[in-house]
Every structure is written in C-alpha cells, then in structure tokens.
Give the backbone structure.
Amino acid sequence: MITASHKQLADLLRTTDAERLETLWREADTVRQANVGDDVHLRGLVEFSNICDRNCAYCGLRKENSAMPRYRMTTEEILDCARQAMDFGYGTIVLQAGEHRSMKADWLAGVIRQIKTTTPLAVTLSVGERPAEEYAQWREAGADRYLLRFETSNPELYARIHPVADGTLADRLDCLRVLRELGYETGSGVMIGIPGQTYDILARDIEMFRELDLDMIGVGPFIPHPCTPLANHTYTNDKDDRQVPNSELMTYKVLALTRLTCPRTNLPSTTALATLNRDQGRERGLARGANVVMPTLTPKNYRRLYEIYPDKACFSETPRAYHLRLQQHILDMDRTIATGQGSSLHYVNRKQRGRYACPA
Ligand code: 5AD
Ligand code: SF4
C-alpha cells in the first residue's frame, strides 16, 4: 500500500505530464499484478428493476423522471440469468436495482436462496440503503457481497446532489458499517467529475477508500443524463483549476491511484468508462489497475430501460456475443479469466484476521 499524502494524491490527479502519467500506469499495473495477479474476474450483472424511490440529481432512474418506463423482472427471469452466468463460467451474479420500498425483503431473500441452492454462484447485491434487519435477512439467505457507493466523501457536495429527504452521507456510511459488520464483502465507490467535485475532494475520496478498508471499489465517470437536474454539465477541460473533469483520463488516474492505495481490493473496469471509450476503455481500465469486469446479463428488452446515464456501452450485443468478445480481449492482453467465486483478497485477509468491525 502506498501512503501518498493528500497533496501527492491531488497533485497526481492534476498532472498532465506524460512521463508522470506513464509511470503511474506502470506502477498501478505492477501493483495489480503483484497483489491480485493476472486473473480478471467476470461478474454477471442483472439489473432486475429500474423502479426507484429516490431523486439523486445525477441519475436517469430518479423517481421524478417520468419519461422512463419502469420494469421489474420476475424471479424466474432472474433465475434464467443465473443459469446463463453459470453457462458462461462466471462465479458471481450481481443483483442490482433502483432503491424501492415496494421491493419486499422477503421476496429478494427468496431469490437469493434459490440462486444459492441451485448454483455455485456468489451473490452480490446492489439495491441501495435498506434497514439493517433486511441486510441481515439477505445475508442469512446467502448473499455474499454488497455494493453501495458513497458517491463523494464531501458532506456538502453529497447534500447538493441528493435531496435532504433521501438522507445524508452519514446515513450512507452507516449502511456501509452495518454491511461490513454483518460479514458482507463490502464495496463502495464514487463518480468522477460530478459538478462541484474539486481535486481536493477527489483526493479525499481515495483516502476514504483506504480508511473504510473496502473490499471492492467502483469508480466511473459521471455521464450527464438529459432528464436530470445535472443534464447540462459537460466539461472535459483538464486544465480547469478546481472542477474535476468527467473525462476518460481522469477515470484512469483515479483507478490507478486506487490500486496503489488499496492493493488487494477488487476494482472493476466500469461500463461508464467503456461508454466514454467504446473501443479501448474497458481494456485500458484493466491495464491501469482494474481486475474485474461486470458484463450485463439483463435481458435486452429491459436493458435499454436501465438508463442510469445515456448511450451505455454494450446495449446492442447479446450477452453471448459480448461474452465471447470480452473473453478474447482479456486473453489478447495476456491476462487470464478467473474461475470460482473470486472473492476480494482484501476480504479474505480481513476474515482471516477476524476483522469485521469497522476501522476506528
Ligand atoms: N453517470 C455515471 N454514473 C452514475 N451513477 C448514477 N448516475 C450516474 C451517471 N449519470 C452511478 C452511481 C450509482 C451507480 C449505481 O451508478 O455511482 O451508485
Ligand atoms: Fe435511484 Fe440509485 Fe439512481 Fe439514486 S443512483 S436515483 S438510488 S437508482
């Protein structure tokens, strides 16, 4: 683990010096290889509902976006995706949805139980902030991991992009603490280039990854959605003094610095990154610190409705076509495709040391 100072992190986030950047990419790749090896873990992503009760200012699924037709997949449709994940040799299924009260905890517990009794898959959940009892119920049903991004480490910025009624950053961090104490392999992350995000805030985000002792970290560029209050924010000027750009380059910097700061965590090369650069984004992310890809298994008719941001990559291909192409790209990079559930080594080490409680 590097213990770069806040200033060093902020400086590297600002740099445009080609040599420094080459060194950063090289170091991130070396640290990735030394700590988590050449394996790339593939997670089958199932976006099982786009219904959401919240109004995050950045997200196309926000409740007030009435232009978005809503859907919810049935248990059987989700189980079909789980079978497809097995068929592709994936070790994990990620069940993601908007945050909605009408999704009953008992129903999701039933889905988890069925997946766990009929497949060898690890189950990752990503369904937002819920009461501790529900997180406990799902854990008992067999859920292994939970993803909940804190979005920004800055409480004021958090409050600017989330309505007061939807809760505070402290509430979000409380959920992460509960998840961790329940023994979930815990993931979080931030968006890069949200309006109002400064270099200082972003450097602090990376420090927070370390302090929260996360097992998985997802970072991706903010991509404005036309039907949201943040629709008109496009700024890719790296020279701007304070505002972090929502650019591809900035995303690589954050990925690389996250790998250096948290060497044994699992880091996905995200779809948002692949959306900024359809030809190379996914692979460059893998070459600059990432070791996970989350191909979507969401059936095609629903996929276009899970529009967190517009023009998402891999909209048109079938899961099988995308799977085959992705596999080939990974092998072409001299990387290997992981088998098994692929827990984060950070989590495995943490469990061996009996460290479930949150760091002080
Ligand atoms: N651009 C990029 N990422 C987004 N997310 C939500 N809206 C956007 C957007 N417009 C991310 C958030 C959320 C995750 C599910 O998707 O970080 O936690
Ligand atoms: Fe809902 Fe999540 Fe989008 Fe917020 S980010 S509006 S909670 S789906």
About this structure: The longest strand covers residues 39-49. Residues 1 and 321 are 38 Å apart (CA to CA). The mean pLDDT is 93. DSSP finds 14 helices and eight strands in the chain.
